[in-house]
Amino acid sequence: MPIKVRPIEPPPPPPPPPTWSAKRIARIVGTLLLAWWGRALYHDWPNANSSFLHNIILPIHETGHIVFMAFGEYLHAAGGSLFQILFPAIFTGYFLWKRQKYAATVPLWFAGVSAVDIVVYIKDAPYGEMELIGGEHDWSYLLGETRWMHAADRIGDAVLHFGGICMVVAVCLGLYWSREEPE
User: Which of 15, 92, 108, 156 has the lowest tally of Cβ within 10 angstroms?
Assistant: First the structure.
């Protein structure tokens, strides 16, 4: 029986370089729009509550008070601010868990916007001049109970910078992960 010898086949050609598909271009444009909007909110933080996004954040904030109500008066007051940052962060974690990296950047950006939205409340705590939906000023209570009222400006600045960092990281990762993900 004769032995059949097959000729050695050349290796397959290398894969083509990544293309600029419509999906990738839309992701980049969307990410750059979020960068522009986030920058505007960050630099105009005293008016962040007049943004369209505040109307989305407010019900999430109020839901946080209900969610944390069972954990005592202090966490009930802090729950609104905590939840408005945790809620989008949960979605960030979910999308990362599902390996949808680009999708995770949008709720991360929203968590940063939510942090910027809180700043005006924190900085108003010593003065109580803001018009609220009702009840006591959350941050007046929180900072008063902890005897940190004197540091309201510094705490507000820290939260503002935290929000800015979240938005910058979201934009950088959004641009990096804008490539189409493997199916």
Answer: 15
